[in-house]
Description:
By secondary structure, the protein is mainly beta. Helices cover 11% and strands 35% of the residues. The chain is built from 3 helices and 9 strands; from the N terminus they run αββββββαβββα. It has helices at residues 7-14, 90-96, 166-172; strands spanning 19-26, 33-36, 41-44, 47-51, 56-59, 71-79, 105-113, 124-139, 142-151. Strands 3-4-2-1-7-8-9-6-5 form a 9-stranded mixed sheet, with helices on one face. The protein is elongated, with a radius of gyration of 25 Å.
Amino acid sequence: MPRLMSPEVEAHLAGGTVYPALLVYLDFPDDPVRAWSGVGSLHWGGHVWHGVGQFGGVSGITDTLDLKSQTVDISLSGIPLKDETGAPLFDTISTTFTQHYQGRAVEFFYAVFTEDWALVPDPVSLWLGRMDAPTITLDGSGITVSLSAEHEFASLTRPRVRHYSDVDLRERAPGDKGLEFVSSLQEILVLWGKQKYD
């Protein structure tokens, strides 16, 4: 799939040595997460992207010519068992995943840097999908959080189940009464060709 790249990124990629990084945006409802594969803070798009370095992992980003549904796995390891105050972090992380986040957006960006690690404008949108189920693993050394995401094309393969009913229509168009009397017609007896009913 073709990517929309800025002239600056295109020129830098054609110049030889490339210093790449990956950015990820997770649209959690209470507190969206913005992270990148480097270390420290990165400022882009009016937001701060937090570096996860070697503790972050992404697998499964592929590019195909057909409309296949692809799954990407995101992981963050090395999370300490307790915070600076000594409070356990496992419960805090578990609470985060009780939010209604499934089906919310995940987006990856491909970023290019100069030799002195200045960001070349602008990062390229690489992959767009929806969050799915998480896995939280606890062992003696720390906590690992894994999250899978489905490509946005996955929704194209799901059947669209709709009915010609008043309830279904009002879900899509509140206030529309076009099918208001459909349910009352289910058992009605209609006799054609008679001037009046008995």
